[in-house]
Here is the input.
Amino acid sequence: MTSRLERLIDQGVGRVPADIVLKGGSFFDLVTGEIVRSDIAIGADRIVGTAGDYAGETEIDISGRTVVPGFIDTHLHIESSLVTPHEFDRCVLPYGVTTAICDPHEIANVLGAEGIEFFLESALETIMDIRVQLSSCVPATHLETSGADLPIERLLPFRDHPKVIGLAEFMNFPGVIHKDSVCMAKLDAFQGGHIDGHAPLLSGKDLNGYLSAGIRTEHECTTAAEALEKIRKGMHILVREGSVSKDLAALIPIITERLSPYLALCTDDRNPLDIAEQGHLDHMIRTSIASGVEPLAIYRAASISAARAFGLRDRGLVAPGWRADLVVLDSLQSCRAEMVFSAGRRVTDALFATRKPVALIGLDSVKARPVNAAHFGVPVAEGETSVIGVMPGKIITEHRRYRLPAKGNETTVDLTNDIIKVAVIERHGKNGNHANGFVQGFGLKKGAIASTVGHDSHNICVVGVNEDDMARAANRLGEIKGGFVVVEDGKITGEIALPVAGLMSIEPYETVRDTLHHLRQAALALGATLEEPFLQLAFLPLPVIPHLKISDRGMVDVDKFALIG
Here is the structure.
């Protein structure tokens, strides 16, 4: 009886028909840069033949089309798509993303190990190959109340799971440089494996020390100069273009044929509405080409270079013996996926129907205490007041100072300067902490918006002009078990329920997409000027850290006005 391996060899030689043959088209050779006219023969989950004519049990005419390897998103948080892994699979795979390397950092900060288990179970069922990096920073900071704690002892049981690659983004770069014991325990345990980096603006000898810990990738570069220094020091740069963090334009100069072996693409955080309107990694590819990037450079970054960076040695080329993750395009320039194959299977609605469901978790994770308008008061302070300055298109914020108006013994908003109130409310049921401050840059002229998606600890974050509306929005989040809410004059004008850990919907991605469109319109009616007010809101709880050279001051000091839930 012929074994599976023997059959694959026979199919490659041409002794027996392949399972599927794509006929009449061409493929993009990412080694030579040539467009090669050829049949592509598939046996089981891999390519068995190119550069020849093949017969297949199923033959598909792709005349006039070009085949490229499936795209690899090298760093993302599926939770930020606001849908479950199963719905993310169904949403993104048709755009040609056949591998996604995720960090379940968001759900882990709410539910701990249970959240990682949920993602691993889901990854075993999805059609797309979802790989998991184990969340390294849970809690993300001692400055905010998280829902869970993941010391090294809780991570080690997952290390050898078939879907696990290594350790996810190591955000605590001061802890690495100053040899914090918790950081050292995690880094020691994953030496020899893959460790993702996360070190925005880190350079010089501090960067050298960080890299000496065995950290090899970076998705936080926001300038070409920063990326080049990190490439020269051996890092693989993951060029990011998400719904909030948009770094592609700034990094276009480094996307060259020479540097492409050291580049990959990622989205980090991207929601279904943006995916529907623009696409996913395909959007990055066609935008890059339209900006003058050579197709060979960007398609390498999207596949083979990404695969090599993460040790996925079976994918990234259209060649015999390689995993049959394939995208059939109308053209390299437009990068529109007309047909997608995942491990040799043509992606269809029927294929998604074969997946087994995974039980949902964290459906009662929002345990915040009810609030009223009085909870949002800010006492009058002498002199200037600290204000968080939002920078559109970036998750980093600025420390600004303004002399704000007062009403009685309380500081109030300053709409002339686009300064409104912001609050973080602890929602894990641990201590009921509540912190208030001011933010500039949302554009709101009335009402309030609130969210349980609040990186990285995912407490409730609410911004608003009116304290009553802020309270109404925050309390509504408890009623719908998490999500986004828009309130105007005491009335809820838009909302989406995200009951899975307060982060993800239980609805199909199409429903989430349509609801997000309505939410965007509701936010615009309040005067919102940000392109993505809800995702920008989600990043406001991040502590505000001044730009200090770490070695000069020891551990980085955090400004006293940072909001701590």
Q: What stands out?
A: The longest strand covers residues 164-170. The first helix runs from residue 4 to 13. Residues 544-565 have pLDDT under 50 and may be disordered.
